[in-house]
């Protein structure tokens, strides 16, 4: 195979792989130890919001991804924690 200039295809690809590996290694070395761990949000925990049919947000919340099916629940609970979801489900089934 004919080479153009001083750099052949294999040398070019090999050089790119080495440069890419150095770039990844540089990022890994320069990253702080806790870079992958999410920071918890500090602050007060909000209560679950209950949206009834008289609330202006109700119309937007009853339509999901499938516009052919629109729900008409008595209320919608906007929960921010698992315990709030569990409480809403318990209330709904009782």
Q: Calculate the terminal CA-CA distance, rounded to whole Å.
A: 77 Å
List the helices and strands in order: HEHEH
Please give the oligomerization state of what you see. Answer: single chain
How large a portion of the residues is in β-strands, by DSSP E? 5-15%
Strand order in the sheet with the most strands: 1-2
Alpha-beta content class: mainly alpha
Percent in helix: 40-55%
Q: Extract low-pLDDT stretches.
A: none
Cα shape? elongated
- Mean pLDDT across the residues is 76
Number of strands: 2
- SS element count, helices: 3
Radius of gyration: 28 Å
Biggest β-sheet description:
2 strands, antiparallel
How would you describe this protein?
There is one protein chain. The chain has 94 residues and is mostly helical. Helix content is 40%, strand content 9%. It has 3 helices and 2 strands. It has a two-stranded antiparallel ribbon with strand order 1-2.
What is this structure, in a nutshell?
The chain is mainly alpha-helical. 40% of the residues lie in helices and 9% in strands.
């Amino acid at each position: 195979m004919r080479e153009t200039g001083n750099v052949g295809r294999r040398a070019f690809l090999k050089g790119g792989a080495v440069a890419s590996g150095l770039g990844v290694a540089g990022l890994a070395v320069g990253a702080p130890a806790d870079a992958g761990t999410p920071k918890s949000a500090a602050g007060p925990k909000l209560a679950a919001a209950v949206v009834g049919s008289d609330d202006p947000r109700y119309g937007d919340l009853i339509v999901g991804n499938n516009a052919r099916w629109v729900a008409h629940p008595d209320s919608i609970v906007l929960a921010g924690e698992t315990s709030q979801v569990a409480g809403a489900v318990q209330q709904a089934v009782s």
